[in-house]
Amino acid sequence: MNFARRKSIIWDFAVTDLKIRYRKSILGFLWTILEPLLFLSVLYVVFTNVFENKIEYFALYLLLGIIMWNMLVRGTQMGMNGIISRSGLLTKIYIPTSIPGISSTLTALIMFTFEMTVFGVFLVAFQFIPPYTIIIFPLIVILETILIVGLNLPLSVINVRVRDIQFIWNIVLHAGFFLHPVFYKMEILPKEIQNILQFSPMVKILNFAHDAVLYGKLPTVQDSLIAIIGTLFVLGLGYLVFRKFSSRIMEEI
Amino acid sequence: MTESAIVVKNLSKKFRIYHERRNTVYEIITSFFNKKKYYEELTILDNVSFEVNKGEIFGIIGRNGTGKTTLLRLLSQIYKPDSGSIKINGSLVPFLSLGAGFQLEMTASDNVILYGKLLGFSKKEIKNKLEEIIKFAELEKFADTKLKNFSSGMYARLAFATAVQVNPDIILMDEILSVGDIGFQKKSHDTFVSFKEKGKTIVLVSHDLKVIRENCDRVMFLNEGKIVDIGDPEQVIKTYVKIFNQ
């Protein structure tokens, strides 16, 4: 199947997913925006009143963190089920097995851009003018997108064979939320834990985003390399697992 | 010598039939300690070789579970052969089931566009044909109705109307000519005839021996994964009926 056909199917799947998602609920499209906002207000109340924190622009820090983390959660949850939910189609028409995982990533990316407009509104409300370093933000988002593809490829095929990968992955995501700098800064963690966590490309991605959008800091060359290599490593490993699992996947579904 | 549209050589395909399916982590771990074989290999297609000529209508008959659908899925690349080879000359579109990929939450028009694109149309092409398709399906009043409110006949008509718009060299059909009421069946039969006149190669799987007898140039009879007979429709149907009555 040629590249243009693949591209058009990926796009169609992503758009269909979005349409169906929003047509099913009364508030429809608004939910994309409301969901992170409601979650934000809970966390904001907890972390400004109950716990002490010294983070500058905390509300914006939190919102940006949640939106970035949400993209990973949504992308992988949809991607994991991508093949199973389209099994009816995939057993009737030849469509490359990699496509559902990639199209789910695109769906998550589109929803992410919706949510970023809300972030824009918040910037205005807080009268915050982002530093020039915000120009590298799209690169950070691209890095996260590649990371999600790298996770979706293996997750989508493993899920056909081993159905409880869903539960395991959801636990990983829950744990990840607390272990990643979404609502705190890495510095408050003990050094040893920081050393382990820095291997997660997502930690670097969140740090880069916070620094570039709020604090006017560009990532160091060393950190950038670690993040890029880490992401490509996930993608490469994910692809190998995908290759191993994807043979005979249609026969097993 | 006539050119071949499809060449199949020594094609074999096995399936695993699971006694108990192991698809949780717990079961996979315990299976390390319990080496009992938990599936059987079932040979669906066993060393099958045949050719389909260009412009030919090629029928496949056989009982349920003798590998007809598996064969079509192999021809359309959904399954991969265990051994043997398949060569396809020209573009191929499988109509294995109508309306695969239809979304119940979307309108008829949206679904036609989506399905058309999956079958290989560009967005512009399918949009140009939209009106014609809806008219062919006799659903002019329901173009903006969500598919979940359609009856099964309306659904099938819409799917058929979209699918027949494609213009491939080779068409695989799995029991799809008997869709809709008598009026629509007439229409779908006419479409089939027009494919024939345009010189398309058609591989037709059906249990309806009348359809097979009337349309096919050659017929293949599959039983338990092997070719029992191949050739003239009357002859092959006779063999089929004889074995079936045993």
How many structural domains are formed by the residues of chain B?
2
Mean pLDDT across all residues of chain A, rounded?
89
Strands of chain A, total number: 0
Apparent shape of chain A: globular
Gyration radius of chain A (Cα, Å) is: 19 Å
Count of discrete structural domains of chain A: 1
Task: Kindly report the oligomeric state of this protein.
Answer: heterodimer
CATH arch. level architecture of the largest domain in chain B: 3-Layer(aba) Sandwich
Give a description of the structure.
- The complex is a heterodimer of chains A (253) and B (246).
- Chain A has 253 residues and is mostly helical.
- Chain A has one domain.
- Helix content of chain A is 76%, strand content 0%.
- Chain A is built from 12 helices and no strands.
- In chain B, the strands form 2 sheets. In chain B, strands 5-6-7-3-8-9 form a 6-stranded mixed beta sheet, sandwiched between helices.
- Chain B has 8 helices and 9 strands.
- Chain B is α/β, with parallel strands linked by helices.
- Chain B is globular, with a radius of gyration of 20 Å.
- Chain B folds into 2 domains: 170 residues, P-loop containing nucleotide triphosphate hydrolases (Rossmann fold), CATH 3.40.50; 69 residues.
- The model of chain B has no long low-confidence stretch (mean pLDDT 83).
- In chain B, a hairpin with a 2-residue loop joins β8 and β9.
List keywords for this structure.
heterodimer, A: 253 residues, mainly alpha, 76% helix, 0% strand, B: 246 residues, alpha/beta, Rossmann fold, 2 domains, 3-stranded antiparallel sheet, 8 helices
Summarize, please.
Chain A has 253 residues and is mainly α.
List the helices and strands and how they pair.
The complex is a heterodimer of chains A (253) and B (246).
Chain A: H1 3-23, H2 30-50, H3 58-80, H4 82-85, H5 87-90, H6 99-125, H7 137-161, H8 165-179, H9 191-197, H10 201-215, H11 221-246, H12 249-252
Chain B: E1 4-18, H1 25-33, E2 39-53, E3 57-61, H2 68-75, E4 83-88, E5 92-95, H3 108-118, H4 123-136, H5 152-163, E6 170-174, H6 182-197, E7 201-205, H7 209-215, E8 218-223, E9 226-231, H8 233-244
Parallel strand pairs in B: 3-7, 3-8, 5-6, 6-7
Antiparallel strand pairs in B: 1-2, 1-4, 8-9
Helix pairs in contact in B: 3-4, 3-5, 4-5
